Structures are given as C-alpha cells and as structure tokens.
From TrEMBL:
Domain of life from the UniProt record: Eukaryota
UniProtKB keywords: Membrane, Transmembrane, Transmembrane helix
Identification of the protein by name: Uncharacterized protein
Transmembrane feature ranges: 23-49, 61-86, 98-117, 164-186, 198-220, 263-285, 330-352, 400-417
Secretion signal span: none
Taxonomic source organism: Holothuria leucospilota
Chain segments annotated as coiled-coil in the UniProt record: none
Length: 421
C-alpha cells in the first residue's frame, strides 16, 4: 500500500466518522469527563479515525470545562459522603441511615467516578506509545477508543443518540429516586433540615445524573462489543483458511472483550456487596423509640451530648421516631430506602444484560464450531483450539460472584443484630 492509498484511506475513514458521531453523544461524553486534551488521531488503519472538526482552542476549552465539571461533581458527592460519615458514625440510633447511605448508597452512586478518576490519571501518566494488545480496563475511558468502538453500532445519525430508549430508561430511574428524595424532604423533613441536608441533596442529585450517564456509556460499550463479535464472525467466515489473518482478528477481539469484562466484574462486585449488605441490614432493623429515663438528665443516644464542628449542623432530629408515627411518612421512607438500594442494581443488570458478559465468548466459540466446514478442516481445528486457549475456564470468577453477595448478607445481618444489643 503506497502513501497515496494510505492518505486516501485515512481521509475516507475521517469523513465517514464525521457523519456518524451524534452531537448528543459528545455531550454525554462531556458530562462524563471523557474528552481528550487533543483531538484523537487514528491509531490503526483498520479502525475508523475519530476526528472531530473543531479548533484546537475549542477542544482545550471543552476538555477543561468537562474535567472541571467532573471533579466538582465528584468532590461534592465525596464531601456529602464524608459529612454523612462524620455525623452518624458510631451512633446506634442512626444505624439504618448510616448503613443505607454511607456503606451502600454512596459507593454505588459514585462507582463511576471510582473507576474513571484512576483511569483519567493512568491514561495521562502512561507513555504515549501504542500497545496493540493492551488489556487494561483504563483504556475504555479514552475518547479515541470509545469513538472507534461506537462505529460497530448501526442505525443512528447526528441528532439521535444510539439506543435512545435505553438512555431515557436510565435517566428515568435516576429521576425517580430524586423525586422520592424531594417528597421525603417536603412531606417529612420540612422542619428539621439544615444546610448540611441541602449539601447531601445536591450531592445525591448530581451523583444520580452521573450514574445514569455512566451506565449508558457502559451499555454502549457492551452493545458495541456484541456487534464486534458479529462482525468478527463474518470476517472469519469470509477468510476461512487464512490462519494468520483470523488469529490477528480474534486477538484484537479478545483484548476488547477482556478489558470490558474485567471492568464489569469489578463494578458489579461493588454493586452486589452494597445491595446485599444494605438489604440484609435493613431486614434486621426495626423502628424503635429511644429509651429515655425520666430520672436521668442524659440525652438519648441519637443526639451527641456536645456536638462540635460540623456535627452542630447535622440534622439528628430528622431521625426522631415522631417522624415515622405517620404510616404515610413511613411508607415514603421505606420506598426511598429500597430505591437507593435497588436502582443501582437495576441499572447495572440492564447494562450487563445479566451477571457476566462471558456468554459472549462462549457463544462466539459455539458459532465458530457451527460455521466450520470440511473444506478447511485443519484450519478450523487449529483456529478453534487457539481461540479456546485464549480464554480458559476460570472458576475463580464464578466463585467470587457468589462469595461477594454472601459476604454482604452475612455482614448485613450481623450489623443489624449487633445494633440492637
């Protein structure tokens, strides 16, 4: 291939990609902080070049604003979690609030930033040379890598998000939790709120918005990988007998699959533990009024005797049993508690289409067997054996998927029982 053909190929791929990047999708990437400092360049002649026709100054301003939004949102959410921890740690009467919010809800809510921020620094501290078979999950958070992968998804244009219905579903789930929070504050907690409560509310709203965008980002990664599997099957079928070409194709496919599966397993571990721990603790907890002795001047345990610092502004009175004597208020509180625990689980299961994406690889192996013919018997036997050896059976992943929820349940029940002693 001479230099003119290479230039023509790059220009054609650029033009093709220019017409296929939805504007709204770039806004989603901006809200997630997945914007590169410099315009992405084509890393391989076999992939579409994600070139966006904007000036360098516009690109740098977009990058700075995007990263500024990301870290502002992350700091707000982490500050909310920190103040929750300071306010309620060690107070028995606030065990339920502490478990649901600090131990379970915030880790699930901010799981996106827990992965993206390390990936952000890793991608920028890494050497610039290209590793063709880099299998680290941090590569998934590169704008160039994502825009190359999105080409596998068909049937979308410049003005409509791919899989728009899924994007709407993720945002509706997040808005539903926000709506219940507002109802709780208006109907129940309208006379006990402090400025700390508003910080918590802002951090939750921002975190829910980010969680919806993050889930949509991962969903597109999973869908594009499924389409890449289909495209690889067609490529292998058309190139049966060409072992070197097919092995190169399947190596690239496996790297992309391995990156995404590793990220999903880590992410789902956090979600799983938070859900099971929270539900178990919630199931063992009952609303009881604090015992106040008439001959004692000691305040009930739900109020610190001498609050200092930020504790002076903590809304301890919001957990007073009087707020839950009304069955309507108690129902709102229960709905919100379960929504905070279950909505992250619903979103994560929708993203992954189950508990693991290993089904993609197993299905790929099966389809290779079905498409094999006697015309190239040696090729098919060698190629299928090589493909299976890339991803040997590993029982550790399966065991961890069961051990982590069991640990969450065990710690949750233990914490709930201990809180009543």
């Amino acid at each position: 291939m001479d230099s003119q053909e290479v230039t023509l190929l790059i220009n054609n791929s650029r033009e093709k990609f220019k017409t296929r990047v939805p504007i709204l999708l770039m806004i989603v990437l901006w809200s997630l902080g997945i914007i590169d400092w410099s315009p992405p360049t084509c890393e391989s002649l076999y992939l579409y070049c994600p070139i966006i026709g904007r000036s360098r100054l516009h690109r740098k301003i977009t990058f700075v604003v995007s990263i500024g939004w990301l870290f502002t949102m992350a700091l707000t959410a982490y500050f909310g979690a920190l103040t929750y921890f300071i306010c309620f740690f060690g107070l028995k009467e606030h065990f339920l609030r502490f478990v649901i919010v600090v131990v379970c809800y915030y880790p699930s809510l901010m799981s996106g930033t827990m992965f993206y921020i390390p990936a952000f620094f890793s991608n920028r501290c890494k050497k610039s040379e290209i590793d063709e078979f880099n299998m680290s999950w941090v590569n998934l958070f590169k704008e160039s890598a994502f825009l190359q992968r999105i080409n596998y998804i068909k049937k979308f244009n410049m003005f409509i998000l791919p899989r728009l219905a899924v994007y709407v579903f993720f945002n509706i789930c997040s808005l539903a939790v926000s709506f219940v929070i507002l109802i709780l504050y208006i109907e129940v907690y309208n006379d006990c709120l402090t400025w700390v409560s508003y910080i918590w509310t802002a951090s939750e709203f921002i975190g829910l918005i980010y969680l919806a965008q993050f889930c949509y980002f991962l969903y597109l990664q999973r869908v594009s990988l499924e389409e890449e599997f289909k495209e690889s099957e067609c490529f292998i079928k058309a190139n049966a007998g060409k072992l070197e070409n097919c092995t190169q194709k399947v190596k690239n496919l496996f790297c992309n699959y391995f990156q995404l599966r590793k990220l999903f397993l880590l992410w789902l571990s956090i979600i799983f533990f938070s859900i099971t721990f929270g539900i178990a603790a919630y199931a063992t907890w009952s609303y009881k009024k604090p015992e106040i002795r008439t001959n004692s001047t000691v305040l009930p345990t739900q109020y610190p005797l001498h609050p200092k610092g930020i504790k002076k502004y903590c809304p301890y009175s919001c957990d007073d049993p009087k707020y839950f004597e009304n069955q309507h208020h108690l129902l709102i509180y229960n709905v919100l508690a379960f929504a905070k625990l279950l909505i992250p689980a619903v979103l994560s299961f929708s993203v992954m289409r189950g508990l693991d994406i290993k089904y993609m690889w197993n299905r790929f192996i099966l389809r290779l067997r079905l498409m094999s013919t006697t015309d190239h018997l040696d090729f098919w036997n060698t190629f299928i054996r090589y493909t299976k050896d890339l991803h040997p059976e590993n029982q550790l992943d399966t065991k961890l998927r069961f051990i982590i929820p069991v640990l969450g349940l065990a710690f949750g029940f233990l914490g709930g029982w201990k809180s009543h002693e």
